[in-house]
Design goal:
715 residues, mainly alpha, Actin-binding Protein, T-fimbrin, domain 1, 5 domains, 32 helices, 2 strands, 48% helix, 1% strand, globular
C-alpha cells in the first residue's frame, strides 16, 4: 500500500488514544516548538509556556503546575524528546487536568521510562520488576521459537524488549503461548525487515486476537498482566479444573463459585489450603497480606510437605524468608518470575502471577468422584459454551467498567447489560433508576433487569415472553437470545452510520449477504453463499475469496487447502480468522463455528469484513493501490447492492431480530484542542477500534470525524 499521508505512531496503543485530527494538531504544535529552537528539537522545557494557553489546560493548569508534573517523570527539562514522548506528556497532563476539574480520568503514574523508553502494545508504563518478569516469561516460553531465537534471550537490564515488540511478531507469539492456536502463525508478517504497513498489520492482528482471548485492550492499564496473566489464570475455572468444586462444602454454592473472577477464585483456593494447614489469618489480597511471607510458607508446606522446612517460618528477616519461599517454589517447577523484593514490597501483579504458578504446578485438590461428576454436570454443552464465550469477549472489548468472567452469572444483576446498552445506545439508560452491585435486595436486581427489557423493546428487540426476572434467575437461553440481539443491533448501527453506504437507511441481513456476494462476484470469483447457514461455507473458500476481494494482497493462496477433509477445513477456518483480525476485524468466533456453519457467527464474520471494507473506503478513498477495480467503486455503486438479489435471501435473514450479529463499539476520544474546527466537520462515521480495529495510518486529506459519545453519567 502506498499513499498514506496521515500521522503514524509506532505504538498502536498510543495511536488509539488520538484521532487523526488530534494527531495532526499536535504534530503541528510539535513542529512549531521545534522551529523555535536552533537545534530544531523540542525539549521538555519548551512545553509548559506553550501548553498553559492551550485547551484543555488553559485555566486549569498553570505554567508552573505543568512544569512540576513534567519533572515528576523526568527532572531534566532540557532533555530533547521525540514526538511520541510529546504525545505521552500530553496524555498525562490531560488526565491531570480532567482530575482537577472533577473528572474521573486516571492519571498516568509512571517512572522515567514514561519519556525515555518506547512503549509497547502490551502496556503504557511498567515497573522495572514487572519488566524483569515479562522478560523472564518471554525467554522461558519463546526461547526456542524458530523466528525469535536469534533475538532471545532478552537482557532485562536493557530496552531490548521494547525494540523487539515494535515488529509485532513477539506479541503475536505471546498470545499463542497464552492460548495455543489463537493466531494462525501463517498470517504473521515475519520478514526480518518489516515496512510500517506490515508492522501495523501485526499489531492489529495482536490487538484483535488479544481481545479474543479476554485481554483488556481498552485503556490498557498497569493492572493487566495481559497475555501472561491470561495464560496463568486460564485453568482457574470449573470447566478446566473441576477439582475446584472441593472449595465449597455445599453443592448449592457451586453456582456462586462459577461466578467468581479468577483472582477471587485463586484467593479462595489459597485460603482453603491455609485453613487446613492451621493458618489463622485470611488472605484478602495479593499485596499487604503476603508481604511477611508467612502465608506463602504455610501454603507451600501444605502443598509440598516433601519439600517443607521449618527454617522458612523461623527466618526473622522478611527478605531471607522470601528467598527461601522462592527456592521452595522452584522445587515445584515454578519459574522465577518474582524476586524476594517483589514479595516484601507486596507487588500485587507479580504476587498474583506467583500464586497462579503455584496453583498450576500443585493445586493440592482431590479427585472426589461424586464432586467431580457434579461439577461436570454444571458445565454447558459445546454450543452454549461457545456462544457464552463470544458474548463475554465482545462485552469485555467494549471497555465498560465491569469485567465479565461468566456471562450467565455476571449479567444476573442487570448492571452489566445496562452498561453495555449505555455504550451502544448512549442515553438509553436511566441511571437514577439503576442499582450498582453489590446488590443485597433481590428486587433491586429485578428493577435493573426490567429496565434492560424496557430498553430492549425500545430498540425493537424480539422479547416475547421475556421478563426481567428471567435474567435474574439466570435463564441461559433467554440471556443468550437477548445478548445476540444486542450484539446484532450494534453492528447494524455501525453499518448504518457509514452514511456513504447506507444514506441513513436501516441495514438488514439481506444487505450484508448481498454485499458479500457482489464483492466476491466483482472480484471475478464464482463462489456464492445462499444464506448464512449455507453448508458450502464450511470449507472456508468463500470467506477467503471475500477477504481477497476487499484486500487482494492479504490472502496467501499457497496456504489455502481444498477444504475437503475436516483437518483441511480447520486449517482454512483458522487462517480466515487470523487474516480477518490482521485486517482489523474484531471477531470472536472459533474455527469450529465456520466448520459447522454457525449461522450467528457466520453473520458476525461477514458483517465485520463488510464494516472494515466500507470504513476503509470512507477514511481512505485515495489509497487503493493493489485493490481490485470493484473496490474503487463509488459510494452510489456500492450502495446499489442494497437493492439487488433480495429474493435470493432466506426469510430468516430478513428478520431483524433473529440470529444476526455485530462486533463491538468502543468509546471514542474527544475532539482535539488546537485544530481548525472545519477539519472536524462532516458525516459521523461510527469507527471504533473495538468493532474493527482502525489502522494506525490515515489519509491526510480525508479523515472521517468521530461521532460524539453522549453517555450519561452514572449515578
Amino acid at each position: 500500500m502506498s499513499g498514506y499521508a496521515g500521522v503514524v505512531v509506532s505504538d498502536p496503543w498510543l495511536q488509539s488514544q488520538f484521532t487523526q485530527v488530534e494527531l495532526r494538531g499536535l504534530k503541528s504544535n510539535f513542529k512549531f516548538l521545534a522551529s523555535k529552537n536552533k537545534s530544531g528539537k523540542v525539549t521538555l522545557g519548551d512545553i509548559p509556556r506553550e501548553w498553559a494557553t492551550m485547551k484543555p489546560f488553559s485555566g486549569v493548569l498553570a505554567e508552573d503546575a505543568i512544569r512540576t508534573i513534567l519533572t515528576e517523570s523526568n527532572s531534566e527539562l532540557s532533555q530533547e524528546i521525540e514526538f511520541e514522548s510529546f504525545l505521552r506528556a500530553y496524555l498525562n497532563l490531560q488526565a491531570r487536568a480532567t482530575t482537577k476539574m472533577g473528572g474521573s480520568k486516571k492519571v498516568l503514574k509512571t517512572n522515567a521510562s514514561f519519556l525515555k523508553a518506547a512503549t509497547t502494545t502490551l502496556r503504557h508504563t511498567i515497573s522495572e520488576s514487572e519488566k524483569y518478569s515479562y522478560v523472564s516469561h518471554i525467554n522461558s516460553f519463546l526461547g526456542e521459537d524458530r523466528f525469535l531465537k536469534e533475538f532471545l534471550p532478552i537482557d532485562p537490564a536493557t530496552n531490548a524488549l521494547f525494540d523487539l515488540v515494535k515488529g509485532g511478531v513477539l506479541l503475536c507469539k505471546l498470545i499463542n503461548v497464552a492460548v495455543p492456536g489463537t493466531i494462525d502463525e501463517r498470517a504473521i508478517n515475519t520478514k526480518k525487515v518489516l515496512n510500517p504497513w506490515e508492522r501495523n498489520e501485526n499489531h492489529t492482528l495482536c490487538l484483535n486476537s488479544a481481545k479474543a482471548i479476554g485481554c483488556t485492550v481498552v485503556n490498557i492499564g498497569t493492572q493487566d498482566l495481559v497475555e501472561a496473566r491470561i495464560q496463568l489464570l486460564a485453568d482457574l475455572n470449573l470447566r478446566k479444573t473441576p477439582q475446584l468444586v472441593e472449595l465449597v462444602e455445599d453443592s448449592k454454592d457451586v453456582e456462586e463459585l462459577m461466578g467468581l473472577p479468577p483472582e477471587k477464585l485463586l484467593l479462595k483456593w489459597m485460603n482453603f489450603h491455609l485453613k487446613k494447614a492451621g493458618y489463622k489469618k485470611a488472605v484478602t489480597n495479593f499485596s499487604s497480606d503476603l508481604k511477611d511471607g508467612e502465608a506463602y510458607a504455610h501454603l507451600l508446606n501444605a502443598l509440598a510437605p516433601e519439600h517443607g522446612t521449618t527454617s522458612t517460618l523461623e527466618a526473622k528477616d522478611p527478605t531471607e524468608r522470601a528467598n527461601l519461599i522462592i527456592e521452595q517454589a522452584e522445587k515445584l517447577n515454578c519459574k522465577r518470575y518474582v524476586s524476594s523484593k517483589d514479595i516484601v514490597e507486596g507487588s500485587p501483579n507479580l504476587n498474583l502471577a506467583f500464586v497462579a504458578q503455584i496453583f498450576q504446578n500443585r493445586n493440592g485438590l482431590s479427585v472426589d468422584s461424586k464432586k467431580l461428576s457434579f461439577a461436570e454436570m454444571m458445565t454447558d454443552d459445546a454450543q452454549t459454551s461457545r456462544e457464552e464465550r463470544c458474548f463475554r469477549l465482545w462485552i469485555n472489548s467494549l471497555g465498560i467498567d465491569t469485567y465479565v468472567n461468566n456471562v450467565f452469572e455476571d449479567v444476573r444483576s442487570g448492571w452489566v447489560i445496562l452498561e453495555v446498552l449505555d455504550k451502544v445506545s448512549p442515553g438509553s439508560v436511566i441511571w437514577k433508576q439503576a442499582t450498582k452491585p453489590p446488590i443485597k435486595m433481590p428486587f433491586r436486581k429485578v428493577e435493573n433487569c426490567n429496565q434492560v427489557i424496557r430498553i430492549g423493546k425500545e430498540l425493537n428487540f424480539s422479547l416475547v415472553n421475556i421478563a426481567g426476572d428471567d435474567i435474574v434467575q439466570g435463564n441461559k437461553k433467554l440471556i443468550l437470545a437477548f445478548l445476540w440481539q444486542l450484539m446484532r443491533f450494534t453492528m447494524l448501527q455501525l453499518l448504518k452510520n457509514l452514511r456513504s453506504f447506507s444514506q441513513g437507511k436501516e441495514i438488514t441481513d439481506a444487505d450484508i449477504l448481498n454485499w458479500a456476494n457482489n464483492k466476491v462476484k466483482q472480484a471475478g470469483r464464482k463462489s456464492r453463499m445462499e444464506s448464512f447457514k449455507d453448508k458450502s461455507l464450511s470449507n472456508g473458500k468463500f470467506f477467503l475469496e471475500l477477504l481477497s476481494a476487499v484486500e487482494p494482497r492479504v490472502v496467501n493462496w499457497s496456504l489455502v487447502t481444498k477444504g475437503e477433509k475436516d483437518e483441511d477445513k480447520k486449517l482454512n477456518a483458522t487462517y480466515i480468522i487470523s487474516v480477518a483480525r490482521k485486517l482489523g476485524c474484531s471477531i470472536f468466533l472459533l474455527p469450529e463455528d465456520i466448520m459447522e456453519v454457525n449461522q450467528k457467527m457466520i453473520l458476525t464474520l461477514t458483517a465485520s469484513i463488510m464494516y472494515w471494507s466500507l470504513q476503509k473506503k470512507t477514511s481512505d478513498p485515495e489509497t487503493n493501490s493493489g485493490t481490485p477495480e470493484a473496490e474503487k467503486s463509488t459510494p452510489n455503486e456500492e450502495k446499489s447492492t442494497l437493492n439487488e438479489e433480495n429474493s435470493a435471501v432466506n426469510e430468516e435473514n430478513n428478520t431483524p431480530n433473529e440470529e444476526n450479529s455485530a462486533p463491538d463499539e468502543e468509546k471514542n476520544t474527544p475532539d482535539p484542542s488546537e485544530v481548525d474546527p472545519a477539519e472536524a466537520e462532516g458525516e459521523p462515521a461510527a469507527s471504533s477500534p473495538s468493532s474493527s480495529t482502525q489502522q494506525t495510518t490515515d489519509v491526510e486529506n480525508e479523515d472521517p470525524p468521530i461521532e460524539e459519545n453522549t453517555n450519561t453519567d452514572k449515578e
